[in-house]
Amino acid sequence: MKKTILIFLIAFIVLFLPAVANQTYYMEFLTAAIDVNNNIIAVHGGAFTSIEYDISRYPAVGGLTIWFTPAAPAAVKIEFEWSVSADGTNWSTDDETFEIAVNTDERAVNGVVRVNVPFPFWGAKKIRLERVVVGNGAGNCTAINAGISF
Fold first, then answer.
1. Which domains does the chain have, with CATH numbers?
2. In terms of pTM, does the model score above 0.90?
């Protein structure tokens, strides 16, 4: 009798109580925010080192978030570009696929511009932040960072 009740109780727990409900994942690409001056291209392996994340175990659609503090708002673009790898070794950058480009005069909250864009990551095993480009006339941008969420 005890054995039957124990089996029923274990079956009930496994079937009706989820291990984790509404699990979300969020990771930042830079361990410390960077500053990029006017008309400068900051590149992974040079001006900063991006963390490479294995995203193969996450859902295929996620979101990339960028944030920065513009020195002086101007209608000039700041671009964030990511590289992806299908095998974990060879990296490729597609400017149109994994890029967020916004004007430095976007709406800021407490001086910080934050933008989140959903992206499909089908076939990607790893991702990293590859470059940050601050357009000519934008002034310096500080506290630049990016994250990924699923």
1. 24-149 (2.60.120.1300)
2. no
